[in-house]
Design goal:
By secondary structure, the chain is α/β, with parallel strands linked by helices. It contains eleven helices and 14 strands. It has helices at about 55-60, 85-95, 110-120, 150-155, 175-185, 190-195, 200-205, 235-250, 270-285, 345-355, 360-370; strands at about 5, 30, 45-50, 75-80, 100-105, 125-130, 160-170, 185-190, 210-215, 255-260, 300-305, 310-320, 325-330, 340-345. The strands form two sheets. Strands 1, 2, 3, 4, 5, 6, 7, 8, 9 and 10 form a ten-stranded mixed β-sheet that branches. Helix 2 (about 85-95) runs parallel beside helix 3.
Length: about 375
């Protein structure tokens, strides 16, 4: 069925010929020309790319990198036959319905609209995190800048959980855009603040159902093939760290990397940069702690009285990963039951609460979910 949407990889470029057992290519299953599509439902995650320049070089780099443990199952599904929303939407829906985690690498940022819509069609709510230098929503961005967030945020009856945009550059977002984000429950993390404490961004990624990385979030010197081009942004090493945070998330269901153009360049360094970002995501995925608490076994409870806000907050720390959550309680008027929601926070958020100060992240969670 997936063959309707995906082209197999040519045998001449089959990366299983990376013969060293420590290389990722030797442990990867491929949708290859002349062979039946592997039983894709059984794989926990799969790679899909656009059919554009640079993807062969990206795979050459990725599959030459170090592999993970022996039972790490990874499938390369090949390339999209077409890059448009209406064509790709049913493909993404089928993959999400099967419980397979897709990694999408595409030069066309507009595909993110169908990527998000497919996940939203499968699940009742959607929490989004993007790593981007701007807020891509009409009318705050032009059509040439792929404002794929507009339908996600403005649809009637939308059940969006809001989200985060990490790496926003203030000169690229009008004041009305910041106001609109506040109204929609979307937190904008400015580039300067984000770079000061990269680790503090982890809870914002951990909470997401879908994560989109726009390559314009990087400095142009670290990724010259980005579109649009940006003189300022994250370093590649920082993006790889954020990508690893995404892989570690227990709630994330899809990861997209978009916004580049190799057609005017044969820059193999940029292809290797894409491969590194994918590899660090896989490294995080391979090291999941599985501590998103469906119960509180292996969790330490900390009660913090915040007198100024007349709150007693419950924080939870995982003994497995050292990650933190804050517990938000909401009374259900219809049956008088208490609904509990755990919001990812940082250790610094906990320390601030102990000092009687609530961070912006905790305050927003209390307003949104109490």
């Amino acid at each position: 069925m997936l063959e309707n949407w995906l082209k197999p990889l040519p045998l001449v470029n089959l990366w299983s010929n990376h013969s060293y057992p420590w290389q990722l290519g030797s442990k990867t299953a491929f949708h290859a020309d002349g062979f039946e599509l592997p039983s894709w439902h059984s794989f926990p995650l799969a790679l899909i790319t656009c059919d554009s320049a640079g993807m062969t070089e990206m795979r050459n780099a990725l599959y030459s990198f170090k592999c993970f443990h022996d039972d790490f199952d990874f499938l390369d599904l090949g390339v999209l036959r077409k890059s448009n929303d209406s064509f790709a939407l049913p493909l993404f829906e089928e993959i999400f319905n099967a419980g397979v985690f897709p990694i999408l690498v595409t030069n066309d940022s507009s595909l993110n609209k169908s990527f998000m819509q497919a996940l939203h069609n499968v699940y009742s709510s959607l929490h989004l995190t993007t790593i981007d230098d701007r807020f891509r929503c009409f009318p705050f961005q032009s059509a040439s800048e792929f404002p794929y967030l507009d339908s996600f945020l403005s649809s009637e009856g939308e059940t969006s959980e809001g989200g985060h945009i990490i790496g926003v550059q203030s000169h690229l977002v009008p004041s009305e855009g910041f106001t609109y984000c506040d109204e929609k429950g979307v937190s904008l993390h400015r580039l300067g603040q984000a770079k000061q404490n990269l680790k503090d961004l982890e809870p914002s990624i951990r909470h997401a159902d879908i994560c989109i990385l726009e390559m314009s979030a990087l400095k142009h010197t670290d990724f010259p093939c980005q579109i649009p081009k940006s003189p300022s942004g994250f370093f590649l090493e920082e993006i790889c760290q954020l990508s690893r945070y995404a892989g570690l998330s227990d709630t994330l269901k899809g990861f997209s990397i978009s916004g580049f153009d190799f057609s005017s360049s044969s820059n193999q360094i940029d292809s290797q940069a894409l491969a590194q970002i994918v590899w660090y995501f896989l490294d995080g995925f391979n090291n999941k702690k599985g501590d998103f608490p469906v119960n509180f076994d292996g969790m330490m409870e900390y009660l913090v009285e915040v007198k100024e806000h007349q709150e007693i907050l419950t924080f939870w720390k995982s003994n497995r990963s050292g990650r933190w959550w804050v517990q938000i309680e909401k009374a259900n008027a219809s049956d008088e039951k208490i609904n509990l929601r755990l919001i990812p926070v940082s250790y610094q958020d906990y320390l601030d609460a102990c000092e009687g100060e609530l961070s912006t992240r905790v305050l927003k969670a209390l307003v949104k979910y109490s």
